[in-house]
Amino acid sequence: MTQHLKEEATAEWLDQPFNPNSADGWDRVNCGHHGLLKHLLVHEAGHAVAAARLNIEFLDVSIAPPGNRTEMGGGLLGGSLKLTRFENGWAVDCIDEAYEMFMMGVVAERKMLRHQLEDGYLQDVDRFLRAGNYLDGMPLEEFQLLRQRVMATVDENWPQTERDIRALIRVFAAQFTASGAKSMDGLTIPLLLTSAEVHSILDIDRPLQ
Fold it and tell me: Are 72 and 78 in contact (CB under 8 A)?
């Protein structure tokens, strides 16, 4: 068991640097507790920050305890941004914003942890394709331009985005510590922030319903 597994997931722990070259168990294969928790916190906070900043309506963002099924999957541990609109094709008129929101989870993992979990990425790609009504045959060249536009915007705004992600992670970390659990195995209720809480933490006005 690595040292970080023995410690509570405090805000200070979550701010410790991630070394992708060390065998410290922070990947999915070697760690089903705090390592995976850190990935999910970064990933789901990335989605929530993007949704709030882009005025995409959502109900809440959460990390479920081990064994609980979520919208995003039902393995040992899962996370979810619960959107208000989820039917196929809801994003055809805001495809740039949808792509940024769905991809921000894995982008945040890459930028902050220098590592990503493949299954979360694949699920986000599938949800994006469904939200865009499978892009209705968008040519590859057009999709590449979409990605270039969005990634350029993400890079330009990244300093503020990272601060926002860390702000949400600190609140999640406080919830985790307050639960008294020493690892995710001991957690019995989800870590959860409502849309109103996310907007308040980030000082962003909520979109009109």
Answer: yes
String of DSSP letters for 101-163: HHHHHHHHHHHHHS---HHHHHHHHHHHHHHTGGGGG--HHHHHHHHHHHHHHHHHHHHHHHH
Region of 137 (left: φ > 0; alpha: ψ -120 to 50; beta: rest) is left
* Residue partners of 133: CB distance under 8 A and separation at least 6: 88, 89, 92
User: What three-state secondary structure class fits 198?
Assistant: helix
CA 17-21-25 angle, 5° bins: 75
Supply the DSSP symbol for 82. E
Structure tokens at 165: 């992600």
DSSP annotation of 70 reads: B
Residue 61: alpha-carbon gap to chain centroid: 8
Weakest-pLDDT range from 30-34, 143-147, 202-206? 30-34
pLDDT in tens, 138-196: 788 888 999 999 999 999 999 999 999 999 988 888 887 788 876 666 778 888 999 99
At 95, which helix (H) or strand (E)? helix 95-113
Higher pLDDT, 76 or 67: 67
Question: What proportion of the chain, given as a percentage, has pLDDT over 90?
Answer: 38
- Please calculate the CA angle 124-129-132 and round it to the nearest 5 degrees: 125
